[in-house]
Structure formats: C-alpha cells, structure tokens
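Subject: for your reference before the review

Hello V.,

The reviewers asked for a structural picture of the protein, and I figured it would be easier to keep everything in one thread rather than splitting it across files. Below is the amino acid sequence we used in the manuscript, unchanged from the supplementary table.
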Amino acid sequence: MTASNKTIDDCLVAITNHVDLATATKILRDLRKVKGNKSFTDTIAIMEQHALNAFRRQAALKAWRTMNQNPSKYLMTRSEAARKAAATRKANLETERAK
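And here is what came back from the structure prediction:
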C-alpha cells in the first residue's frame, strides 16, 4: 500500500526545506534504483512524479515572470523568427557536414 498524496507532499516539503527541487528530484531518481517491496517502490515513484511536476511548474512560473518583466525582449516578429530558423538550419547543416 502506497503512502497518501498528502504524506508524499509533506515528505517533499521536508526534503525541499534542505535541498532545492532539482536536487530532490535527483535523489528520488536514485532512490528508484533501490530494491524494496512494492509499496516502497511505488511510493518513491509517486514522490518522483510529484517532484518533477513541481519542478516543471516552478520553471514555467520563472519563465512566465521573466517574460512579463520585459515581454518585447522575448517576442519576435515573423521575419525575426524566419531569420532565426534559417540560421538554425544552416548551423545544423554545417554540423552534419563536419561529421
């Protein structure tokens, strides 16, 4: 029987009080390799998924805040986007030729 979502969230809060969310995710990924009974492995898998979701939300919120501070810096016109795409394609072709 796995731990409840509330217990898992409380454990993640306790972990993230001491390390950042990225480190907590790495720790949980390593714990997934530990052999144990089904309830242990399932609980660790759920904890890792909760941590990954929280990490994604945190990254999305940071990006949103950054973009809203100076939106014109992050928005491109169609011609700018086309130039950037062409430059990327050119760089990819040069990389492939170098191989």
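For the response letter, the relevant points are probably these. Residues 38-69 form the longest helix (32 residues). The chain has a mean pLDDT of 85.

Happy to draft the paragraph if you're swamped.

O.
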